[in-house]
Amino acid sequence: MKLTPLRRKDIARCVEIEKLLFAGDDPWSSRAFHSELDAGGYYLGAYTDEDVLVGYAGLATVGRPGDFESSVHTIGVDPEYQGMGVGTGLLRALLARADELNAPVFLEVRTDNDRAIELYNRHGFTRLGVRKRYYQPSGADAYTMKRPARAEQGVS
Question: Any idea where the N-acetyltransferase domain is (predicted)?
């Protein structure tokens, strides 16, 4: 697997994966992905050796130098490739980018997504609270989680 900047030509594939992963909610549309890329988000694609997109992830950062804050906007992995380290690789790449900026990282995750919650816990995230009925139309709740900025972790 190789991680590279997400290519616009692969957005249709991202939408396919979204529909598989988030069928009970509101999967991202092509327009949503284009909007995120237009806004300058840090988006990566995970590609097989045959150059097939099997996962994607995005990080948005706001603020000024010395006062940045980041949010994981999405991580998605084709179900056929889950459990192979694709999601872990994507998350680590996003966190490395946040560490370059010394930014804390926030995210929301479904309260019933045990696999993702464990991944985030292993990478230093802690729960801050619950957003009731965050995901629509299912009405599923989400945990809000935070990973401190690199400086707050005691890492220089």
Answer: 1-150
Cα–Cα distance, 124 to 107 (Å, whole number): 12
d(CA 52, CA 12): 12
- pLDDT at res. 155: 53
Sequence letter at residue 37: L
By CB atoms closer than 10 A (0-12, 13-18, 19+), residue 116 is: middle
Segments in the chain below pLDDT 70? 151, 153-156
Looking at residue 137, its pLDDT comes to 86
Number of domains in the chain: 1
Q: What is the CATH number of the domain that holds 9?
A: 3.40.630.30
| Amino acid in position 91 | L
